[in-house]
Design a protein that fits this description.
This protein is mainly α. The protein has one domain. α2 packs antiparallel against α4. The chain is elongated, with a radius of gyration of 21 Å.
Length: about 100
Amino acid sequence: MASRKEKLDMLEDKDFIELSSKKNSISIVLTSLELAAYFGFIFLIAFNKPFLSGMATETMTIGIPIGIGVILLSWVLTGVYVYWANNKYDAMVETVKNKIGA
């Protein structure tokens, strides 16, 4: 078990700080994109119903493909995060773990 001093040293380690910073950055960017899409759609529902009720085809309103797009964007953003985590984040975690001997 790591001592208090070792834990504090790890928190001040350059690689650990970089790891935390990059994870926070990508999390904030992807979360912001998802929230913008989701709340943008909700605001369209609240404030521009005539636009969403316009017909895209004879049997489908414009709101349906936009709603599907919001759902698909969620999947894409999840895929982006998984790709990043598997290719960048995991390697950075291993570097930090090897440094502290975990």
